[in-house]
Design goal:
Layout: H1 2-12, H2 28-59, H3 65-94, H4 98-127, H5 129-158, H6 161-186, H7 192-218, H8 224-244
Amino acid sequence: MISFIITSFAGFATMLGILPIFFSGRKQDIIIPFSLAFSAGVMLSISFFSLIPEATSLIGKTFLMVPTMLLTGIFVVCGILFSSFVDGKIEKKFSSNLLYRVGIVSVIALIFHNIPEGITTFLSSSQDLLLGITLAIGIALHNIPEGISIAIPIYYATYSKKKAIFFTFLSGFSELFGAVLAYLFLAPIITSFGLGAILAMAAGIMIHISVYELLPTAWRYPIPIRIILSFLLGAFIMFFCQMII
């Protein structure tokens, strides 16, 4: 039960990302590009400084260095291809509403990221409570800007706080869902290789979302300096969070 509580705390910190929609006023030409570029920095930082190194470490427990690097790269590419496929399907449905598409794709990307994160947090806290708490705090910190990457585009695409809250909640809940999967099925059978493959694919998905959705959409707004600074701020904050973890 304690492990579930710790994992829930980490996951539902995502809900703090909805706060900007209540204080946004009419400055959407500033808030939207700032949030999208910031989220891109967050996702790329998570991918390159956390997910890919962790995936490499886990896969490396089974294979030697060269096969490990090759397999990690293959799974990252698989994540990019999968995200591109899903993005194409979503584009057909929401081609007239770019921000809504960005928000939905971000939800899908973060669900794939949060499920293995929930598995890791649950298993870690089950074996070492202090390690689990430390990990959960670090995850909670980086889940807040992840929530922003969902809530802002969904809200400004639909002007519906209910939809923004729902999709942000869905992303946070996926972390708890990962813990449930770990408790019911995966704890006895999950392997380092399997978890590493999932993390590498999650990294690929987030790289694709950042490079092909978040940044291009942010760049449509005529404030390039703020976009660059927002991107660097998101990357720096996530790098700092990874240092804490």
